Amino acid sequence: MRIFFLGTPDFSVPSLRSLAASKQHKICGVITNPDQPSGRQLKLKPPPVKTAALELGIPVYQPEKFNTAETLEIMRSSGAELLAVVAYGKIIGDAMLAAFKDKIINVHPSLLPKYRGVAPYQWALVNGETVTGVSIIYLVKQLDAGDIILQKRIDIKETDNAEMLHDSLSLIGAELLCEAAGLIEAGKAERRPQLESDATYFKKIEKSMGKIDWNLSAKKISDLVRGLYSWPCAFTAIGSDTVKIHEAAVAREYFGHGMPPGSVIIADEKKGLVIACGGNEALKIKTLQLASRNMQSCDSFLRGYKINGSITLN
């Protein structure tokens, strides 16, 4: 089957590579976002999908505006029988939907209809979910609402963070995408409508979400840390210093401490940094980062940064 691929970030790359490696399918072109300025010198940086596509010898197109007659003609003239959309980042307009009716499929990293919208695996972690997965759906006008072709469910481990889930789900998505394309080509693809009453929507992750409210439970704060790793990161303040928290764990051995939320229960190079949370619970900080510094383990941090045990975090 001839497939036109639409994708942009790292998440899309395993799907592109899997389709390219398949003997059953041929990628006849790739559409991705334009190169973006990056770094202090604002040099143009290609999106990961472009880099991978060029390595694979696949034609790449980077339209500034996607929903145009020119873009549609590029895909039609390629002989594409299917469009595969994996985190492209732009809305597929009515003309595209009509031209490739029932021939556009999308990889979405959640168990739809739950967690429609952006950053679904990050939100799943922030919300303390214990399972997630990937859905392959037919693309329709309504956001993430198309009929389901395939789904795969995975457990979320207590040690998983957003970066780990990103990598796991991108590989699962690649596997399912190839399988779904094969089913469509064979005329055996399932169409399972989503139950609208079960749908949940989540907005874009914002930096301001990272500010830790120490009145929350230790589990809630730990989930926030995991969900916002490695961007935008959970953060707090020690005096005038902003500190990003990259890794933390519920410290049940310190529950019942009787101290106000945000108080430093212990700050010791050997015993670690433990902070009071709501409900007399406690959180142990494992890795953190001062502004304009590198990430550090807690013991390394405490060797160079002395914390008064009575201080309350902001």
UniProtKB/TrEMBL annotation:
<dbReference type="GO" id="GO:0005829">
    <property type="term" value="C:cytosol"/>
</dbReference>
<dbReference type="InterPro" id="IPR036477">
    <property type="entry name" value="Formyl_transf_N_sf"/>
</dbReference>
<dbReference type="InterPro" id="IPR005793">
    <property type="entry name" value="Formyl_trans_C"/>
</dbReference>
<dbReference type="InterPro" id="IPR044135">
    <property type="entry name" value="Met-tRNA-FMT_C"/>
</dbReference>
<dbReference type="Pfam" id="PF02911">
    <property type="entry name" value="Formyl_trans_C"/>
</dbReference>
<protein>
    <recommendedName>
        <fullName>Methionyl-tRNA formyltransferase</fullName>
        <ecNumber>2.1.2.9</ecNumber>
    </recommendedName>
</protein>
<dbReference type="GO" id="GO:0004479">
    <property type="term" value="F:methionyl-tRNA formyltransferase activity"/>
</dbReference>
<keyword id="KW-0808">Transferase</keyword>
<feature type="domain" description="Formyl transferase C-terminal">
    <location>
        <begin position="204"/>
        <end position="305"/>
    </location>
</feature>
<dbReference type="InterPro" id="IPR002376">
    <property type="entry name" value="Formyl_transf_N"/>
</dbReference>
<keyword id="KW-0648">Protein biosynthesis</keyword>
<dbReference type="InterPro" id="IPR005794">
    <property type="entry name" value="Fmt"/>
</dbReference>
<comment type="similarity">
    <text>Belongs to the Fmt family.</text>
</comment>
<comment type="function">
    <text>Attaches a formyl group to the free amino group of methionyl-tRNA(fMet). The formyl group appears to play a dual role in the initiator identity of N-formylmethionyl-tRNA by promoting its recognition by IF2 and preventing the misappropriation of this tRNA by the elongation apparatus.</text>
</comment>
<dbReference type="InterPro" id="IPR011034">
    <property type="entry name" value="Formyl_transferase-like_C_sf"/>
</dbReference>
<feature type="binding site">
    <location>
        <begin position="110"/>
        <end position="113"/>
    </location>
    <ligand>
        <name>(6S)-5,6,7,8-tetrahydrofolate</name>
    </ligand>
</feature>
<dbReference type="Pfam" id="PF00551">
    <property type="entry name" value="Formyl_trans_N"/>
</dbReference>
<feature type="domain" description="Formyl transferase N-terminal">
    <location>
        <begin position="1"/>
        <end position="179"/>
    </location>
</feature>
<dbReference type="InterPro" id="IPR041711">
    <property type="entry name" value="Met-tRNA-FMT_N"/>
</dbReference>
